[in-house]
Specification:
There is one protein chain. The protein is mainly α. It has 2 domains: 18-82, Arc Repressor Mutant, subunit A, CATH 1.10.10; 100-142, no CATH class. It is 44% helix and 8% strand. It is built from 6 helices and 2 strands, in the order H-H-H-H-H-E-E-H. The chain has helices at 4-9, 29-39, 46-53, 57-72, 100-104, 126-142, and strands at residues 108-113, 116-121. It has a two-stranded antiparallel sheet with strand order 1-2. A hairpin with a 2-residue loop joins strand 1 and strand 2 (116-121). Helix 2 (29-39) crosses helix 4 and helix 3 crosses helix 4 (57-72). The longest helix is centred in the C-terminal third of the chain and has 17 residues, at 126-142. It is rod-shaped. The N and C termini lie far apart (125 Å). The relative contact order is 0.06.
């Protein structure tokens, strides 16, 4: 019969077989550059590149981030650059065309009162407008 105490007295009986890629691999700078360059290709997916190289995708993202930081800190001649880096803004030229009627004609308000139409153009004197509207209203009540 199997006894628990017998197992406790024995030396190491457990054997583990690790399969798959060896963990804690050391990657050379050339290999890291090659892997990051593959992820920067058009239509490349980081997860597919990581799977092909048997790396966790987070590791590849870390290498990409480190490469960006390294590139931001270096000047074109290879020396460390501490000045801020500016990225040029490139935008598409968007031409906006306004209708010719709205640009050439001033804003007009039409007031219909007692069978008369009064057109008010922007910049009209308000006292003059008030007098005209009173006259139109009084003519309508008198008739």
């Amino acid at each position: 019969m199997f006894d628990v105490n017998d197992d406790a007295k024995a030396r190491f009986r457990r054997v583990e077989v690790l399969t798959g890629p060896v963990r804690r691999r050391r990657w050379s700078e050339d290999e890291k550059v090659r892997i990051v360059a593959e992820t920067l290709a058009p239509d490349a997916r980081v997860s597919e590149v990581a799977r092909r190289w048997q790396i966790c995708p987070q590791q590849v993202f870390g290498w990409r981030r480190q490469a960006r930081m390294d590139m931001a800190g270096r000047s074109p001649d290879g020396q460390m650059d501490t000045s801020p880096a500016f990225v040029p803004i490139v935008s598409e030229v968007v031409t906006q065309t306004k209708p010719a009627t709205s640009a050439s004609l001033p804003a007009v308000i039409e007031i219909k009162l007692a069978g008369a139409v009064v057109r008010v153009v922007s910049g009209t004197d308000t006292t003059l407008l008030s007098e005209v509207l009173r006259a139109v209203r009084s003519s309508a009540t008198a008739a």
